[in-house]
TrEMBL record:
Keywords: Signal. It comes from Stereocaulon virgatum. InterPro entries: Vps62. This is Vacuolar protein sorting-associated protein 62. It comes from the Eukaryota. Residues 1-23 form the signal peptide. It holds the Pfam family Vps62. The lineage of its organism: Eukaryota, Fungi, Dikarya, Ascomycota, Pezizomycotina.
Amino acid sequence: MSPSSQMWLGLLAGLSQLRQVSSTPFIIPFLEERQAFTVPAFVSTYAPLVWLYSGEKYFPSDIRAQLDHTKPEVNFEVIPGYPTPLTLDNLDSLNADNGTQVYLTSVDDITTNPTWLNGVKPDSTGKTDGAVSVAIIVNDRGNGEVDAFYMYFYAFNWGGTFLGEDVDDHVGDWEHNMIRFVNGVPSQVWYSQHSFGEAFTYDCLEKQGVRPFTYSANGSHANYAITGEHDHTIPNFNLPGTGILTDYTDQGTLWDPLLNAYFYSFNADANTYKAYDSSYPTAWLKFVGKWGDEQYPNSDKRQHEVIPGISATAHYAGGPTGPEDKQLNRTEVCPTASGYVCDVRTSLTS
């Protein structure tokens, strides 16, 4: 018998003995398998803490519960034969036909302010009790670079006022931070804001311990790095002070997204997700439709354009896309957007 054959027989004998003395099946702890089932410690250690606005009316909401209050529609018509009940385990089945045109449409007239739109105000510990409002998605890009996405869900978005009238209200709202880690050390942080956002170096941010603060704007939930007034009239320019379109942030209610969240890993090559805990639903992450109503036509009595003929000034806008559409495999910390430069700020500005 060759030395190599003796070595492999010895290894197999050793494994057999380990199986006999162990009360649980022996699993060879390959590094790749361990990583697939263990959330990297730094993803939680440096997770953002979110300050919700002191006058906030629309708090973080349970992701699953959104399906209890909506029905899938395309062109304002209910999809025939859709799965009932619709759940986070079968939501991706709606992708089959006209998937990107599917809108999860409220079964209630939202002008009556149904209570489910209000979400759940975090308790004294920062937890949205009974509401899983966050999906944390980890993309290991290799060579020590890991992107962690902290996806925040709200049942309703109040868009603010334009020329004294409400605009951009819509059912469903997804916002997020992304932290880029290099060898387990946070390097840069992305703050989503309306159609784009801002990026900062981790070192310059306000923090509690090592956890950076995110300030969620009143109603719109756009994420900012500082408190105050943020004029976002011009896309990708957040000017100090009030303007035609203004977000407001302050230290109102502290929300800890870690306390009630789903955790996933993302394989960019295969475009697949894997839950770190088998109890977490996964299929919903592949849903490519919208998480709210389609923008109401002007013929709908609920709709009104502040400037007639300018759809962007409509009172009610269409619902947003979910995590699948948030560019989870980015070259830069910013998502790719035509005409926008990824300016990673090294000091806090509005």
